[in-house]
Amino acid sequence: MRLSAAAVLGLLLAACGQDGGAPGSVPEPGSTGEAPQTTGASTDAGSSTDAPETSEGSSSSGEVEDASSTGDERAEVTPWTWELPPGFPTPVVPEDNPMTVEGVELGRHLFYDTRLSVDGTFACSTCHDPALAFSDGRALGEGVTGEIHTRGSMSLANVAYAGTLAWANPELTDLESHALVPMLGTEPVEMGLVDEADLVARIEDEPRYAELFAAAYPGDPAPMSLAHVTEALASFQRSLISGRAPFDRWFFEGDEEAVSDAVKRGWDLFNVPGECTYCHFGFNFSTATYFEGMLERPYEFQNTALYNEDGQGAYPTGNEGLYAFTGEPTDMGAFKPPTLRNIAVTAPYMHDGSIETLEEIVEHYSTGGRVDSPIAHHQMRTFSLKDDELADMVAFLESLTDEAFLSDPAHGDPWP
Ligand code: HEC
Ligand code: HEC
To answer: Which ligand is nearest to the CA of 370?
Structure first.
């Protein structure tokens, strides 16, 4: 049974529960639902209505609420204009850290700055490389001291929409708090900084920062603080929006030539019999996605039958997933379903990099998982695929690579 793209999108929107919430504050289901029939005349059409009205920043200072600034100073920062791909809703941004052009630019400098690590060799970008959709190509992260993380780095594409952060941490929900983990965390050490004084001492001698911090936080007489570093890093990461892959040009903009027939067949198989959308659903291909207008932050963690160490479904020590937080036996091995955007460039796969290729991924699911586990999610069931159908599903997954995103100079390293 084949579903048309429009029908499937309708299902996605209905299942998403967008309609149940506050009408008016949610993205227009009509506009995205009809997207496959449009000619793609304006790729920004969807976003212009969502974006805050901005005009060079000065006349719209009311849009920016910076708690640390007084009214007069607000005018000095430039509110961010989202240029969202068709079909993308507006990300949720914390009220006390509004998106500004200057904040994003400061965050970009910090993200690529090796001064943020104990021996000056590591930046965020060391483990989050734009060419790999901000992942690092390794199975497991390796920190500045050589300590190996128990899990792999994650893509930061569309992290603005992540309902929870990290592979399985229900308590980590904002990018501002998360940034403390790699900089100051000790289990494991990632960048090895000691405290705020250590961080500030490392960046205060760089003349560019004096300007960048002053521009981003004009109301603050001493803007170089750990709080502002985390805010700016968060703003930069929220700007990393990816949604202009060949799949999008076909699905949301109606360009039939944008993808091959294999991709179109693969998309159908992804829906039926794959039922991958059960967990990799919506514009970001993850149910753990959160955006403006949703009533509740998602709480999405599933066990995909990778391990069963003890007959009860145990995962290896240190990688027990959600169980590490809740202690509930049924949460053992439950991890967040990651976005599948740019998935072709973020191998190896899964929280521990234990699956190498997309072919093996599709086989993993079609065989109901790598192991028999009494606590695997019920959607981990077998389905049969012919060889050419497996190739079609892989072709679909590859059509989610957004080349412009991977090489966008706006996200690139700003340092000489
Ligand atoms: C040593 C490698 C390394 C460095 C350096 C590093 N990260 Fe990460 N990052 C990881 C790993 C590994 C994970 C997965 C963590 C987990 O699940 O426990 C991750 C996860 C993340 C996530 C969660 C993404 C999601 O979709 O949930 C964000 C956000 C992130 N890192 C941002 C940053 C920022 C900002 C910096 C710099 C301040 C940084 N990282 C530095 C390895 C690194
Ligand atoms: C029951 C929910 C569920 C279903 C159904 C599901 N996935 Fe997943 N998927 C997940 C979770 C959870 C992870 C992360 C698992 C981990 O790391 O332990 C994941 C990981 C992945 C990854 C690796 C992502 C990365 O960044 O490493 C790919 C690719 C993937 N899934 C594709 C698919 C495809 C294709 C299907 C359908 C055949 C599918 N998934 C069905 C929940 C699901």
So the answer is: 2
